[in-house]
Amino acid sequence: MARGNLLYAQSGGVTAVINATAAAVIHAARSHHVKVLAARNGILGALREELIDTSHESAASIRALAHTPGGAFGSCRYKLKAPEVDRAPYERLIAVFRAHDIHGFLYNGGNDSADTALKLSKIAAEFGYPLTCVGVPKTVDNDLEVTDCCPGFASAAKYTAVSVREAALDVAAMADTSTKVFVYEAMGRHAGWLAAAAGMAGHGPDQAPHLILFPERVFDETDFLARVQAIVARVGYCVVVASEGVRGPDGRFLAEAGTVDSFGHAQLGGVAPHLAQIVKEKLGVKVHWTVPDYLQRSARHIASATDLKHALAVGRAAVNYALAGRNAVMAVIVRTADSPYRWKIAPAPLADLANREKKLPAHFVREDGHGITAAARRYFAPLLRGQAPPPYGRDGMPRYVALKNRPVGKCLPAWQA
Question: For a Cys-Cys bond, which of 6, 117, 123, 250 suits 133, CB 3.0-4.6 Å?
């Protein structure tokens, strides 16, 4: 990239390790004597000229950022329209970049964020403005194409598998006189990666989860109830893991709420309570359900060591790509071996990831459609491996950092959306 500043921004739902990527970006840039500005609340911060000067943060704070969950600079769900539909935001972004001598842009997010970075790289070229745009992968949904996995997913997967195993022990202890069916809802609108990861909680037909419902498979209520009833009769209880994006025969989400988010995605109202109600009404047994929601993606205390390594590596690589002028690429993870686990970071064209979703492979789903295969276990095992807990204080609470986030002075008129 041309000499100047680097802008880093976080987008979409945050993860347990997205701040580790941010820490790696800042550390790598500092080693090259490049200043990193951070956009407050993702691309919206860039549009609003709400920029943070990370040079005010101490080295100790940046190190602590690597074990702090959440999104240190704020995130957003905001999708830029195509330039031919609305050119004004792009003109504004180039103006902000000019005003603050920004010649490298790193967008840390999923497929929508890859699309934003790709569009911006093309517009910058049209304007003749020297800008290198690099995507940095992140999503607990694990639905980015090309990359073997997405930073954030492995920790959420570990949380899911451990939570299901522990909850199953609780249900088993009480099943004789209390709860017979427990429904756990996992994130995953169109791809069942997190639901599938729950399968790592047990082995064999009598160990939880007994049934996994994937968004890639059509939900059959009659078949579902028959399976639940048979498992309760055989095992004494049944643990169900359902992806939030489970759909019925009509193609509609079981839990569709009738509203959409800012990306145009359908808002879901909770498939776990929906399934629990069906079981209670049709089978007449006691049911408990849970929707971990944000807990899945924020649980830094149980982060995967592999996930942390991935998060740091993509951050370092993204800076190197930007400084080398590798425009319109994303730093992706390439698996070279399952056992022993081997991987590397490589650049992939943003065009191969933007607005694309990677579904759970068919060969990862058991023949009966309600569990995972040996191939899936080989994929998940190294991702869940290892612990990377945060440091704890004398009060028994994790020691997380709050950055100063000192703003950069504004140079332009206020943005009018």
Answer: 117
> By C-alpha distance, which of 260, 296, 333, 215 is closest to 79?
260
Tokens for 415, please give them. 């943005």
What are 41's two structure tokens?
């609340």
Q: What is the pLDDT of residue 216?
A: 95
Residues 6+ apart with CB under 8 A from 402: none
224 lies in the same domain as 91 = no
Count of CB atoms within 10 A of residue 335's CB?
15
* 273, 298, 323 - which closes a domain: 298
pLDDT at residue 269 in the model: 60
Q: What is the pTM of this model?
A: 0.95
Residue 268: the pLDDT is 56
Q: 187 and 116, same structural domain?
A: no
Can you tell me the distance from the alpha carbon of 184 to that of 142, in angstroms, rounded to the nearest whole number? 19
Q: Alpha-carbon distance 306 to 289, whole Å? A: 30
C-alpha–C-alpha distance, residues 240 and 299, integer Å: 22
Query: Which amino acid belongs to residue 195?
Result: A
Please check whether residues 240 and 121 belong to one and the same domain. no
- Give the position of tokens 């004597």: 33
Domain boundary, last residue among 336, 356, 376? 356
| DSSP letter, residue 366 | -
- Residue 276 counted as domain residue: yes
Query: Which has the closest alpha carbon to 405: 3, 5, 50?
Result: 50
Tell the residue number behind the tokens 């009509």, with chain if given. 250
Beta-bridge mates of residue 126:
none
Report how far residue 414's alpha carbon sits from residue 417's, in angstroms, rounded to the nearest whole number: 10
Residues of the chain by 3-state class (helix, strand, coil), percent to 5: 40, 20, 40
Asked if 14 and 33 sit in the same domain, the reply is yes
- Stretches in the chain below the pLDDT threshold 50: 258-262
* Helix ranges, 324-402 (H): 374-384
> Is 141 one of the annotated active-site residues of the chain?
yes
Angle at 296 between CA 294 and CA 301, to 5 degrees: 110
374 inside domain:
no
Domain extent, residue 218, equals 153-298
Instruction: Tell me how far apart the alpha carbons of residues 59 and 265 are, in angstroms, rounded to a whole number.
Output: 39
**Active-site hit among 112, 141, 143, 307:** 141
Residue 287 lies in a domain: yes
Q: What whole-number distance in Å separates Cα of residue 90 and Cα of residue 342? A: 40
Look at residues 271, 275, 241, 265 and name the one whose alpha carbon lies nearest to residue 253. Answer: 271
**What's 199's domain CATH number?**
3.40.50.460
